[in-house]
Specification:
Layout: H1 27-36, E1 51-52, H2 64-71, H3 81-94, E2 98-102, H4 105-116, E3 122-125, H5 130-138, E4 142-145, H6 166-176, E5 183-186, H7 199-212, E6 216-219, H8 223-233, H9 242-251, E7 255-259, E8 270-274, H10 277-290, H11 301-313, H12 317-336, E9 349-353, H13 354-357, H14 367-379, E10 381-382, E11 384-386, H15 388-391, E12 393-394, E13 400-401, E14 407-411, H16 419-434, E15 442-446, E16 457-460
Parallel strand pairs: 1-10, 3-4, 5-6, 6-7
Antiparallel strand pairs: 2-8, 7-8, 9-14, 11-14, 12-13, 15-16
The structure holds pyridoxal-5'-phosphate (PLP).
């Protein structure tokens, strides 16, 4: 039964039991930190950041029950009690009996793709996350993004902008199914603005894959946030619990990869789960090679306990209502002041449209990087550039093709910041936008050959 909510204010459904100091720096300190870090926010020390919205991955706060679970973690090398608790939690949720723990999501991806992909294959996804794309490409396969058209337009409103383009999937499975060893859908679609995928879209993908005998895997990092959007937006799901919706989502898939650093509510961990026993056996053999024995997979027993408990807590309705509302609250405050953000607001982050806000900066001078730097300089809030620094394509002749969007992502760690922190973030962004015209562009003066955004050095132009 849905609980009645009479009051407008949706409170954090927890009280704070242990606190961590944050740095309150002045403008001069932040300017110095930026210069030392060559205007790359990854180069800042965390102690120089007041509100850290770099990522929602592994940065959340664990509950007292999770910490208590850690105290009873069983560190046996083989057959740990904590593994069986973890396995039961994953099985209950996914209905998948083959459960393989990994140290984080990308390890699950690497193991799965090493087993499934070959040179020249194609993997369709709504939008690949960057580690997923890199792991597909590392096997010599093509990572193909086929999100619906609305999912590529920041201003387009659609309740499920993470949906896969079924026409394109049908074409691919019709013409080239022999080159498609697996179809993936990312819930929610992180690289596409944290946008959800509808149950009907998942069902259609599942049926199309089954028709062609192609396995369908979910990249399930934010499955609970996706389930909440389905409950709020998809007819027929209003009365279902997030857990019921999540189990229905998983029932449509043959397997999943998962980073427990998101909707596992843990600081580290992940898993690969599936129904196919023989594929799982092959994956376990690889797991032993690089991650560890199949009952711990690179994690401590206490991590397995924290994840098992986190998977129960994350589907709590009060938690999800607060979680999704907190993200929308931040976006609404900024939108009311005329700051353009990706619409509608996604689950875990607010994405500011820097191309629109800093229209005087051409894409080859990285408007989203410029905005992210300035938001830090003004108020010590760290977001991340998701634009041409991260996704610009560099040709063989050194010319650069800009990314389709120039966004600054403000990702909200789970259960970590309060409403006043969000008010502060909105105020900092609004003040920054007040002098948008004076914000300079940047040029890259040093960069690595791949994943350059982590270490590139910049200079204001
Ligand atoms: C959609 C998605 N897939 C995969 C990953 C990779 O997970 P991890 O960082 O645990 O390796 C992430 C992490 O941010 C993600 O957002």
């Amino acid at each position: 039964m849905t609980k009645p909510h009479h009051f407008r204010t949706i409170i954090e459904p927890f009280r704070i039991h242990s606190v961590e100091e944050i740095a309150l720096t002045d403008l001069e300190q932040r300017q110095g930190a930026l210069e030392r870090a060559h205007y790359n926010l990854f180069g800042l020390h965390a102690d120089e950041v007041t509100i850290d919205l770099l990522t929602d991955s592994g940065t959340g706060s664990m509950s007292s029950k999770q910490w208590a679970g850690m105290m009873v973690g069983d560190e046996s090398y083989a057959g740990s009690r904590s593994f069986y608790r973890f396995k039961e939690a994953v099985e209950d949720l996914t209905g998948m009996s083959e459960v393989i723990p990994t140290h984080q999501g990308r390890a699950a991806e690497r193991i799965l793709f090493t087993e499934m992909l070959a040179d020249g294959d194609v993997v369709p996804n709504n939008t690949h996350f960057d580690t997923t794309r890199a792991n597909v490409e590392y096997q010599g396969a093509e990572a193909l993004d086929i999100v619906i058209e609305e999912g590529r337009d920041p201003a387009a409103t659609h309740p499920f902008k993470g949906n896969m383009d079924l026409g394109r999937l049908g074409q691919l499975l019709g013409d080239e199914s022999s080159r498609v060893p697996v179809v993936m859908v990312t819930v929610t679609n992180n690289s596409g603005g944290g946008q959800p995928v509808s149950m009907s879209n998942l069902r259609a993908v599942s049926e199309m894959c089954a028709g062609r005998g192609v396995p369908f895997f979910l990249d399930a990092c934010r499955f609970a946030e996706n389930a909440w959007f389905i409950k709020m937006r998809e007819p027929g799901y209003e009365e279902k619990t997030p857990f019921e919706i999540a189990t229905e989502m998983f029932s449509l898939a043959d397997g999943c990869t998962f980073s427990a650093k998101k909707d596992g509510l843990a600081n580290i961990g992940g898993f690969l789960a599936m129904r196919d026993h023989s594929l799982a056996e092959r994956c376990r053999n690889l797991l032993i090679l690089t991650e560890g024995f199949p009952t711990y997979g690179g994690l401590a027993g206490y991590d397995l306990e924290a994840i098992a408990q986190g998977l129960h807590e994350v589907v709590d309705e009060d938690y999800l209502r607060y979680r999704i509302r907190a993200t929308a609250y931040l976006a609404e405050k900024m939108n009311a002041a005329g700051i353009p953000t990706v619409q509608p607001t996604g689950g875990h982050a607010v994405y500011i449209d820097a191309k629109k806000l800093l229209s005087h900066i051409p894409q080859n001078r990285y408007p989203a990087q410029a905005l992210a730097v300035e938001v830090y300089r003004v108020g010590g809030v760290r977001g991340v550039e998701i634009g041409s620094v991260m996704f610009g394509k560099i040709g063989d002749d050194g010319t650069e093709q800009p990314a389709p969007m120039e966004l600054v992502r403000l990702a909200i760690p789970r259960r970590t910041y309060t409403q006043s922190h969000m008010d502060y973030v909105a105020e900092v962004v609004i003040e920054t936008a007040g002098h948008a015209r004076d914000i300079p562009g940047y040029r890259i003066v040093e960069q690595a050959p791949w994943l350059r955004h982590f270490t590139a050095r910049f200079e204001p132009v």
